[in-house]
Write a structure and sequence with these properties.
disordered C terminus; SMP-30/Gluconolaconase/LRE-like region family protein; ScyD/ScyE-like; 6-blade_b-propeller_TolB-like
Length: 297
């Protein structure tokens, strides 16, 4: 069944959208790449999440496959750029929802934790947002796998040689990242409390060039800052964020220099892209929670 879904050409692909004609042109099929290659060697899964454009190259994160791809528009070619390995942690360090426990290990799965006297558990990386920094390096936000422990997500820097280093850590359930002309980065936290325990109060953080993290908007202190999933820095220098907001409808708001969130009642076409990102990321998050929680206690 999973193979049948990934073999559907309309799903899991990179498209070029013409907003004048409404035409979609398929450029690359990431789901088929996962189906045919499965670079991690683990479960076959694909869920393209976010992208960043740098000149002729489009970088795409695949949250399901734990990969980063690079698509060359000039050569019309998709290449694997990075694989994000799981972090092996002590099982006793994790808290699971009542009635649920760690999923059973799949046989011959290289992404699973090794057998030791102390039970271990593989925390999947789950890449979400990706951005190109002013230094030319790539920066990828980690959502983290079930049970989505607090403080275990990080932002990974990838240089031109493919070397991965930690840019900022101690974060939780990151969903997007963007850079301002000042060189500072901004990132959205879906919820400060684990999604597995019903967390929904989001957060926006600012990251200095040295990796220092500062909270500039906290849903635990400001109503309506919930389930934050996408952000961008406008030409006006303000940060624009997409989230669920109060009620069933999604919300887009801007953060002014004092850190206040101001609702934008009618998004234009540019902000509409944020809404589409919101729907896609929320779908991914809840799908991931359901999938990884669907196991025997």
């Amino acid at each position: 069944m999973e193979s049948d879904v990934l073999d559907t050409s309309e799903l899991g692909s990179l498209y070029q959208a013409n907003f004048v004609t409404g035409q979609l042109t398929q450029l690359a099929d990431l789901a088929r790449y996962e189906l045919e290659n499965n670079p991690t060697g683990g479960d076959i899964d694909s869920n393209p999440n976010s992208l960043a454009i740098d000149g002729d190259t489009v970088y795409i994160t695949d949250s399901g496959a734990n990969n980063l791809f690079a698509y060359s528009r000039r050569e019309n070619q998709l290449q694997l750029n990075a694989i994000f390995d799981p972090e092996i942690v002590a099982l006793e360090s994790l808290e699971f929802p009542q009635g649920l426990g760690p999923p059973p290990a799949a046989p011959n799965d290289p992404t699973q934790a090794p057998e030791t006297e102390e039970p271990l558990f593989p925390l999947q990386y789950v890449p979400t947002g990706v951005a190109v920094g002013g230094d030319g390096n790539l920066y990828v936000a980690e959502f983290g796998g079930f049970p989505f422990p607090q403080g275990k997500s990080e932002i990974t820097q990838i240089d031109a040689n493919g070397q991965q280093t930690t840019f900022a850590n101690g974060l939780t359930q990151l969903t997007d990242i963007a850079f301002a002309p000042t060189g500072k980065a901004y990132a959205t936290v879906l919820a400060t409390e684990s999604l597995a325990f019903g967390g929904d109060r989001g957060k926006v953080v600012e990251i200095d060039t040295d990796g220092k993290v500062t909270t500039i908007l906290d849903g635990n202190q400001v109503d309506g800052v919930e389930l934050l999933v996408n952000l961008t820095v406008g030409t006006d220098g303000l940060v624009y964020v997409a989230g669920r907001g109060n009620g069933p409808n999604s919300t887009i708001f801007q953060i002014d220099p004092e850190g206040e969130a101001v609702d934008i009642p009618e998004p234009n076409s540019a902000y509409g892209v944020l809404v589409w990102g919101l729907l896609g990321t929320l779908s991914f998050a809840f799908k991931t929670a359901r999938k990884q929680a669907n196991f025997t206690p």
